[in-house]
Known about the structure:
Blueprint: E1 4-9, H1 17-29, E2 32-34, H2 46-55, E3 58-63, H3 71-82, E4 86-91, H4 102-105, E5 110-111, H5 115-126, H6 130-135
Parallel strand pairs: 1-2, 1-3, 3-4, 4-5
Helix pairs in contact: 1-5, 2-3
Amino acid sequence: xxxxxVTLSFSPADVNPSWLRNFYKALIANGIRIAGGYSxxxxxxPNQFGRALRESDAVLFLVGAQSMNSPFVAFEMGAALAQExxxxxxxxxDLPKSRWPGPLRxxxxxxxxxxxxxxxxxxxxxxxxxxxxxxx
Length: 136
C-alpha cells in the first residue's frame, strides 16, 4: 500500500518553528510522508505548494489568528477543496471556531499539542495503522 502523503497550510506567525520541524519528523515517524518534499521553509512558495498538493492525500491546516487573515492560506484552502483533498484542521491557538472559514469549521478539529501527540492524532484521523507506520 502506498504511504499516505500530506501537505501543510499555515501562517508562519501562528506556529513555533521548532514545533513545526518536530511535527514534520513525527508525521514521518507515524508513516505519513510529506508530499513533494514540501517543508516549512517552502510555506510562501506557491509552486512548491501546488506540486505538494497534487501529490497529497490530505491537507493539514494549522488554524490560528494569522492564518485566517492570510491570502496564501485562503488560496491553499480553495485549491485543496477544488482538488477534493481531505482537510484536517489543527487548532493552533484559541481562535474561536466561529471565526474559522466554513470549510474548516464543519470538520472535526484536532488540538495542537506536542508535535508527537498531534502527529499521532493525524495518523488516527487518516487511518494509518501501526503496520503502515512501521513500514513508512
